[in-house]
Amino acid sequence: MQKEEYDEWMSIDEGIPVAATLTDLETYQAVCEQDQTIKIDDSDGYECVEENPPTNAEMRQALDISKRGVPHRSTNYGVSHYCMTY
């Protein structure tokens, strides 16, 4: 990237307030609020939806799916371990 492109890309607006003016508590609260909602772009505008963590059943199902996608190497462990030691 050329210096001119970098300077243009990294232009800083001095009029924007910086996070240093916020207290630690205000910064923490702002981050937590952003983490708790997801903005969905629909035809009517933005709608905030609360994000719920996955249930235990959903987590188990995801784990089962991921286990099926990865071949088990434990059956070949003895052979590969034997070859690596000699």
Question: Could you outline the blueprint of secondary structure elements for this entry?
Answer:
Elements: H1 3-9, H2 24-36, E1 37-42, E2 45-50, H3 56-69, H4 77-85
Antiparallel strand pairs: 1-2
Structure commentary:
There is one protein chain. With 86 residues, this protein is α+β, with helices and mostly antiparallel strands. The chain has one domain. It contains 4 helices and 2 strands; from the N terminus they run ααββαα. It has helices at 3-9, 24-36, 56-69, 77-85; strands at residues 37-42, 45-50. A two-stranded antiparallel ribbon has the order 1-2. A hairpin with a 2-residue loop joins strand 1 and strand 2. The N and C termini lie far apart (51 Å). The relative contact order is 0.06. The model has no long low-confidence stretch (mean pLDDT 67).
